[in-house]
Amino acid sequence: MLSYTSNAKRVDVLAWGAMNAVAPTAGIKQTALRLDYAGGWGKYRRNLSRTFVNGCGPYTGPALSWFVTACTMPDGSHWAVQSWQRALPNLGFDPWKPLQS
Fold it and tell me: What is the β-pairing status of strands 9-16 and 2-6?
């Protein structure tokens, strides 16, 4: 469960299903998180954000680019939120539009 504030409104996002992700490799489908932006209502027909227990501890993982926040779970797994510029050109090209810089 990820909770944040956007435009003065609280948003609760339930994420699940991305077990055993692999490094990006041509020809191999990457696993992906499934997201419910209704705090569990879309998946379970009830809002889990009110009763969800936070199991996150201080982040002990590697340094990340575009770091927003992260935590380390009791099982040793790391969970992170990153932010990046979506409008940048692909393949490392230099920006050629104002929106891309």
Answer: antiparallel
Beta-carbon-side half-sphere exposure of residue 98 (alpha carbons within 13 Å)? 0
Cα–Cα distance for residue pair 30/89, rounded to 1 Å: 22
Give the predicted TM-score (pTM) of the model.
Answer: 0.64
Reported as a single tens digit per residue, the pLDDT across 42-52 is: 999 999 988 88
Q: Which residue has the tokens 């020809």?
A: 27
Q: How far is CA 78 from CA 56, 60, 84, in A?
A: 9, 8, 19
Closest C-alpha among 73, 13, 5 to residue 40 = 13
Tens digit of pLDDT for each residue in 12-35?
999 888 777 777 788 888 788 899
